[in-house]
Write a structure and sequence with these properties.
The chain is α+β, with helices and mostly antiparallel strands. The protein has twelve helices and 15 strands. It has two domains: 181 residues, Potassium Channel Kv1.1, Chain A (2-Layer Sandwich), CATH 3.30.710.10; 109 residues, no CATH class. The strands form five sheets. Strands 2-1-4-3 form a four-stranded mixed β-sheet, with no helix packed on it. It has a four-stranded antiparallel β-sheet with strand order 11-12-13-14, with no helix packed on it. It comes from Diversispora eburnea. This is 1850_t:CDS:1.
């Protein structure tokens, strides 16, 4: 049997015994029992471009010899690639031993490549040991994930799994900021129950139940054709006052999907409560009133609003109350 691994120009050809591969690998056992086999000159030919030659050579040595011996100076990334290849090829003993080897001998490398480890091990039972290691580290030190340059490499499902964990040592406001950055606000439904608390008078009807970055282009097209999508977060309550009344808060923020997030440094003017308007942040930095969205940069620094000193017409907007979802465990809420 001829196996060609790697991608051009870095390919290598291996001559192997199909009967041995059939016994040692669940992947090849299945492949060699199908009608997909391609033969040339009476030899089975098989290509595996997603496995590098160096990685396949290590695995092949185990298949034939039954022993796993990693050289001390072998790059840990090669070992990790071997683990992923062993998972695909269904070589379980190699898979389990290699994970233990990294955890016992290459812990520094694992810590330095935490995002990569979590991304590639997420959802794979066969790589549970590495996944548990990465999850434990992220729960204790969430900045290792959220502040990483590779943060956007994480899949939506993997990120939600982290946020759902009650042991995540991270403030709620920080979670919101990171999710806004990542652009998956809609997936907060997995951690939070989002409900419409109150429909304000003369403000129009809600058009959906969850905001998302995917909706940004649609909603932005309604705002006088300005390609913007903005919002704000109030961790407190809104007062229904007759006259404008400022409210102190050190955790509120306003955001723009194109410009980012800013938290008010002048906490005394974080919020503006007034029964004649919708939500208002700062000294009217962001104000919703009479079907208009008003921008006036005064309080929130730096200014992340895409326009300044303008009033734009809107058709609809939404207000959500964000509350922790109650769970019952061992008879306790």
């Amino acid at each position: 049997m001829i196996i060609i691994v790697g991608e051009e120009p870095y390919t290598k050809t291996f001559y192997v015994h199909s009967n041995i591969l059939r016994v040692r690998s669940n992947y090849f056992k299945t492949f060699l029992s199908t009608n997909w086999i391609r033969r040339e000159d009476d030899k089975i030919r098989f290509s595996k471009p997603n496995i590098e030659p160096e990685v396949f050579a290590i695995i092949l040595e185990y298949i034939y010899g039954g022993k796993i011996e990693f050289q001390e100076d072998l790059d840990p990334s090669i070992i990790f690639d071997c683990i992923k290849a062993a998972d695909e090829l269904g070589i379980l003993e190699f898979l389990f031993y290699s994970q233990d080897y990294l955890l016992n001998n290459k812990i520094t490398w694992l810590k330095e490549n935490l995002v990569l480890i979590y991304r590639d091990s997420f959802g794979l039972d066969s790589m549970r040991k590495l996944q548990e290691f990465s999850v434990d580290r992220i729960k204790k030190y969430p900045h290792l994930l959220f502040d990483s340059e590779d943060f956007n490499m994480i899949s939506e499902q993997a990120l939600i799994a982290v946020i759902k964990d009650d042991k995540l040592e991270m403030e709620e406001i920080e979670i919101w900021k990171k999710l806004l950055k990542w652009g998956i606000i809609e997936e907060l439904a997995n951690k939070y129950k989002m409900s419409m608390k109150k429909k304000l008078p003369n403000r129009g009807a809600a058009i959906s139940t969850i905001m998302s970055s995917d909706h940004a282009a649609i909603i932005a097209s309604w705002i006088d054709h300005y390609d913007i999508f903005v919002g704000g977060y109030n961790p407190d309550v809104w007062y229904n006052t007759l006259w404008p009344q400022y409210k102190r808060n050190d955790r509120s923020f306003i955001f723009s999907f194109t410009q980012g997030i800013t938290i008010n440094d002048n906490h005394a003017y974080a919020l503006n409560c007034w029964r004649s308007s919708g939500p208002s942040f700062g000294k009217f930095d962001l104000l919703m009133q009479n079907s208009n969205l008003r921008f006036k940069h005064k309080t929130y620094v730096p200014n992340v609003m895409p326009v300044d000193d303008k009033s734009l017409k809107i058709d609809d907007y939404e207000i959500f109350e964000v509350v922790l979802k109650e769970t019952i465990k061992n008879g306790e809420v």
